[in-house]
Amino acid sequence: MATDLQRFMSGLKRRNPGEKEFHQAVEEVAADLIPFIKAHPKYDELQILERLTEPDRIISFRVCWQDDQGNVRTNRGFRVQHNNAIGPYKGGLRFHKSVNRSILKFLAFEQTFKNSLTGLPMGGAKGGSDFNPKDKSEHEIMRFCQAFMTELYRHIGPYTDVPAGDIGVGAREVSYLFGQYKRISNQFTGTITGKGLAFGGSLIRAEATGYGAVYLLDDMLQAQGQGLEGKSAVISGSGNVATHAAEKLIDLGARVLTLSDSSGFVYDKAGMTQEKIDWIKDLKERRRGRIKEYADEFGAEYHEGARPWGVTADLALPCATQNELNEGEAKTLVANGCIGVSEGANMPSTLDAIHVFQNAGILYAPSKAANAGGVAVSGLEMTQNSMRLSWSKDELLERLRKIMAGIHEQCALHGRVEGGRVDYVKGANVAGFIKVADAMAAYGVI
Ligand code: NDP
Ligand code: 2IT
Question: How many angstroms separate the CA atoms of 175 and 145, rounded?
Fold first, then answer.
């Protein structure tokens, strides 16, 4: 006989054919929520889970621009406005050749739970384009951002939907997007976060996702009477999230052994330092180079076409992309003595990999909890924009630290399982759900 979860998933798959990333994200959440809803039937009567797995709306549009040779190029742009029960839609924009509806639907769905966990009034959304920024000139990137915003601007606003960055959308792209938004709308509002400090941006927004993922790991270790000091860590990615996670780990006394990009990973047995991380930030942000150059510069090992999960370490932080850590790799990490995983990326572990971590009983912080620091400081950027004031670095670090501690507390409250252990997946799913579900219930059938 089919279980409730199987029945729910077969309906979802029928309604959303071929969207495998979306199916995966929903299955992880539904596995925890279906039993929770059974115990709290009011959510069932109101069909909250059914409604929460259907985005409020999906906007898809053509983006036409001209390359440096004058050729006309066409890309597809999207905004998935998933749920605004507890605040304006909020979530990043991703520019990557792999972007499609399924990927943005999974990201927007996850964002709704993540934003709820921060305790700030933000709904969930995600957007982006299949535009590949890698082989494009600065001028091409600017023209693309302007063309993209020329269509997106009518769907967003400070009380409607507030985009930000994600893969392929960093400070440069956010600036071009915001500049075009301001120009067309003729309004200076906080409609995008991750802005430059000169035009309404917030201190520590760039650092927040990586730092937050490390703070949560620290809280999980501390709850077991342990700490980060002296622990070794493997990290994937070398972008915004990965470099700032590395920076905070080093700051708190851990040893960072690896970083990667889509071509391969570097293994620095001597351990990375703040100077080396600064070098990588310059390599990636300004020079737009490849991680291999790190190995040449600092005499580290380079493993072409491979991921770092085979390197022995106490901690693992996947900070690149979805499904970058599979079941076999999870088993290797556990067999090599890994005791803690914190997901800087969104949905980096496959469902089977998650089950390996859960069955091994190691500390595992799922992405919707672990990487919530980024959107949390985006929320604080919105607050500062509304007040027309800016907080200091210390004030923001303190607020971020408290928000991550609050997420740890909520996970512990809702994720306690037999034997006193905390299942952070269950905790994050249930805690994130309750606030959104109660708001939806209060509105009636809409
Ligand atoms: P960046 O664009 O700054 O960096 C992305 C990194 O991941 C690069 O090293 C990139 O390598 C690597 N990467 C991207 N796609 C792939 C792929 N298909 N296979 C292997 N490696 C890949 O992005 P961010 O650091 O901002 O984002 C990283 C992750 O963190 C994403 O999952 C994002 O959704 C998530 N996240 C980001 C937040 C933020 O505030 N920026 C907030 C919360 C989550 P290469 O250059 O070779 O492509
Ligand atoms: O996945 C994410 O949480 C982000 N890319 C950040 C979203 C935001 O609005 O800052």
Answer: 9
Residue 91 CA to ligand 2 center (angstroms) comes to 5
pLDDT in tens, 165-214: 999 999 999 999 999 999 999 999 999 999 999 999 999 999 999 999 99
What is the predicted pLDDT for the residue at 84? Answer: 98
Q: Probe ligand 1: pick from 106, 162, 216, 262, max atoms within 8 Å of CB?
A: 262
C-alpha of residue 299 to centroid of ligand 1, in Å: 25
Residue bearing the CA closest to ligand 2, atom 9: 91
On the question of pLDDT at 251 being above 80, the answer is yes
Angle at alpha carbon of residue 321, lines to 277 and 88, rounded to 5°: 100
In total, the chain counts a number of residues equal to 446
The helix (run of H) or strand (run of E) holding residue 10 is helix 4-15
Active site residue 126: yes
Q: What is the distance between the terminal CA atoms of the chain, rounded to a whole angstrom?
A: 33
**Interval 348-357: pLDDT, tens:** 999 999 999 9
Please give the domain boundaries of the chain with CATH numbers for all domains. Answer: 1-54+426-446 (1.10.285.10), 57-189 (3.40.50.10860), 206-370 (3.40.50.720)
pLDDT at 139: 98
> Looking at 105, 114, 126, 136, which residue is catalytic?
126
pLDDT greater than 80 at residue 367: yes
User: If you take atom 40 of ligand 1, which residue's CA is the nearest one?
Assistant: 374
Q: Is the CB of 209 under 6 A from ligand 1?
A: yes
For residue range 119-169, list pLDDT tens digits in order.
999 999 999 999 999 999 999 999 999 999 999 999 999 999 999 999 999
**Residue with structure tokens 């054919």?**
17
Give long-range contacts, CB 8 A cutoff, 24+ apart: 34-43.
34/4, 34/5, 34/8, 36/430, 36/433, 38/4, 42/441, 43/437, 43/441
Beta-bridge mates of residue 317? 235
Q: Which ligand is in closest contact with the Cα of 264?
A: 1
Query: Which of 166, 346, 371, 400 to mutate to test ligand 1, by most ligand atoms within 8 A of the CB atom?
Result: 166
C-alpha span between 296 and 291 (Å, rounded): 9
The CA distance from 197 to 207, in Å, is: 14
| Residue 90 CB less than 6 A away from ligand 2 | yes
What average pLDDT does the structure give for the chain? Answer: 98
1 pLDDT above the threshold of 80: no
Contact 212, 372 (CB under 8 A): yes
